[in-house]
Structures are given as structure tokens and as C-alpha cells.
Write a structure and sequence with these properties.
Blueprint: E1 12-18, H1 24-41, E2 46-52, E3 58-59, E4 65-66, E5 70-71, E6 77-83, H2 94-103, E7 107-113, H3 116-122, E8 130-131, H4 138-144, E9 149-150, E10 155-158, E11 161-164, H5 167-182, H6 184-194, H7 210-220, H8 229-236, H9 240-251, H10 255-273, H11 278-284, H12 290-301, H13 305-312
Parallel strand pairs: 1-2, 1-6, 2-5, 6-7, 7-11, 8-9
Antiparallel strand pairs: 3-4, 10-11
Protein name: GlxA family transcriptional regulator
Pfam families: DJ-1_PfpI (PF01965), HTH_18 (PF12833)
Keywords: Transcription, Transcription regulation
């Protein structure tokens, strides 16, 4: 059973180890959800620092130049994301392996993203672990490291080792971590921020099943004119009872509560980013009148729309 809402006040610190040839897409998909979680929660849930082996600038596969904050050997924290992507075989050498083994003593968790799994395994840091890698490298990876149980998965979490198969999977991984650490309500809100209206990829791969994703997609597409829960269940190709059971197991809340949160998330976005009257916001969020929306808004977020606007201004 997932938890719908959790309170975890401690800010987690991530190091992002970049190499020349890293993927912009993988980097953005790893960091942008963390930024969004901070913004939406109004709290510093995550902080991150870009690293290289010598603190020198690194250049992505498409030419983006990044000036790291520090050298790897000077940093530590909750998680180190190892992100070589293209040209990773240039980094399969003893000094880099030694640097990663040293970092394992300063970071609680090591994560190999995209082809970063290969660097971790070459350093002896995935022995007797379950792991994955970019699927183009999966066969060679399994042959090279027989002591690692190689799986064709989007991401694998095995104790204090995490591996991820590519840029799109990095987004799924980080969404999973947000939901695990801070509750599915925040993960859903982050997912909404990145979804288009017609996106069927609801909840951004945070561990939800196909039927629940279909239900979330139907909800997302019908915020202004809410559907009944039986209609949502039909869209999910489930009975209403089965949908209730699945959503509680996967998200920690039933469809009515999840749908209500999605509509109120939209209302909060409009309160914070526009000067629309509350009556108009209520309509756009699927409420018949402003009073009903204001009561629901206060119950969900602990302040009224007008109070939130005062803080904004």
C-alpha cells in the first residue's frame, strides 16, 4: 500500500556526477522533477550539486557545457547519480573506479543512470546486486558482469544501489522516489505539472498499473467537467470496486480523493499564476460555485485562495 501523503522534513542531498558526452535529456529528467517537488511543496525537499572528477567543465553529447559545483572527491550526501551516457567506455579505468569506490563511503546510495550502471559494475559496486542498464547494452553488460543479476527493467532498486535504463526511465525513477519519500499526492502533482492535457502517460510511470493510468488520464482530461466515478471506472476498464481497490493499493487513496486533489491542484495553479477571480477558477476546477471550491481548497492546502494570493503578492 502506497502512502497518499507523507511528511519528511529533512532535505535530501544529491550529487550528479557528469562526464563528457552525458545526455541532456537524462540530466533534465533526473533534476526537473526534484525542482518541481520543491516548488510545489513549498519546502526544500531536495538539493543537488553537479560534479565532475576534477571540477572542470563537462560537455554533453549535444554540446551543452556545464560548470560543476565541485570535485567528486570533495562531496558526499544521500545519493550520487553517475551519468556518463555516450562514450562511457572511455571511463572504464582504474582511477575512475577508485573514485567511485571512495564515493561509496560518502554517499548513502549510488545510482547508475543510463550507462552509469557499467561504471558502477566495473568498479565492483554492483556485485551480487540486481541491476539494469540502457537496453542497447543489456546483453554485453550481462556477459561482462556475471556476478550481477541483470534485469530488463526501466529501473531497479536493490538496497543502496539503484540502476536505470535511460533518460525516460530516469524520470520514472525520480517520480517513484518522490512518491516513496513524500507521498503519492505530491508525486501526482509533479506528474500533472509535466503532463499535457491529452497525455495518456499518467502519473509518469511512478509504479501505477495500466488501469490506474487510464483512470488518471480520464481524470486529467476532464477537470473542468468532472466525470462520475463509474464513468472513470469504465475508462479504466474496471468495475468501480476494483478501481477503488487498485487505486488505494497503488496510490494510497481512492478515485474520488485522487480526482479531487487533481482538480484542486489546478485551482492552486490558477490562484498562484493568474489573476482570475475565484469564481472563474472554481468553474475551471469543476466546482459549481466559489464557496464549495474555497472550502475544499482550505481543507486541502490549509489556506484559502485569497490567503494564498496575499502570500504570492
Amino acid at each position: 500500500m502506497q502512502e497518499w501523503q507523507k511528511s519528511s522534513p529533512r532535505c535530501q542531498s544529491f550529487g550528479v556526477l557528469l562526464f563528457d558526452g552525458f545526455s541532456n535529456h537524462c540530466l533534465a529528467n533526473s533534476i526537473e522533477p526534484l525542482r518541481a517537488a520543491n516548488m510545489l511543496s513549498g519546502k526544500p525537499l531536495y538539493e543537488w550539486r553537479f560534479l565532475s572528477l576534477d571540477a572542470g567543465p563537462v560537455t554533453s553529447s549535444s554540446g551543452l557545457r556545464v560548470a560543476p559545483h565541485a570535485r567528486l572527491r570533495d562531496e558526499g550526501g544521500d545519493m550520487l547519480m553517475v551519468m556518463p551516457s555516450y562514450g562511457f567506455r572511455n571511463y572504464l579505468n582504474w582511477p575512475i573506479g577508485a573514485a567511485l569506490r571512495s564515493a561509496a563511503g560518502r554517499y548513502s546510495v549510488l545510482a547508475g543512470l543510463d550507462t552509469g550502471s557499467w561504471l558502477l559494475a566495473e568498479a565492483g559496486l554492483l556485485s551480487d546486486c540486481k541491476a539494469t542498464i540502457h537496453w542497447e547494452e543489456l546483453t554485453g553488460f550481462a556477459e561482462r558482469f556475471p556476478e550481477t543479476a541483470v534485469l530488463r527493467e526501466r529501473f531497479v532498486i536493490d538496497g543502496n544501489r539503484i540502476t536505470c535504463s535511460g533518460a525516460m526511465a530516469a524520470f520514472d525513477l525520480v517520480m517513484h522516489l518522490i512518491g516513496r519519500d513524500h507521498g503519492q499526492a505530491l508525486a501526482l502533482e509533479v506528474a500533472q505539472l509535466f503532463m499535457t492535457r491529452d497525455s495518456a502517460r499518467s502519473h509518469a510511470g511512478s509504479g501505477t498499473s495500466g488501469p490506474v493510468n487510464r483512470a488518471l488520464a480520464a481524470m486529467q482530461a476532464n477537470l473542468e467537467h468532472p466525470l462520475s466515478i463509474p464513468v472513470i471506472a469504465d475508462a479504466a476498464q474496471l468495475t468501480q470496486k476494483a478501481l477503488e481497490t487498485r487505486m488505494k493499493a497503488e496510490l494510497g487513496a481512492g478515485p474520488a480523493q485522487v480526482y479531487r486533489r487533481m482538480r484542486l491542484n489546478l485551482a492552486r495553479k490558477l490562484v498562484g499564476e493568474t489573476d482570475l477571480p475565484v469564481s472563474e477558477i472554481a468553474v475551471r476546477a469543476g466546482y459549481e460555485n466559489a464557496s464549495a471550491m474555497t472550502r475544499a481548497f482550505g481543507g486541502e492546502f490549509g489556506q484559502s485562495p485569497s490567503e494564498m494570493r496575499k502570500i504570492r503578492h
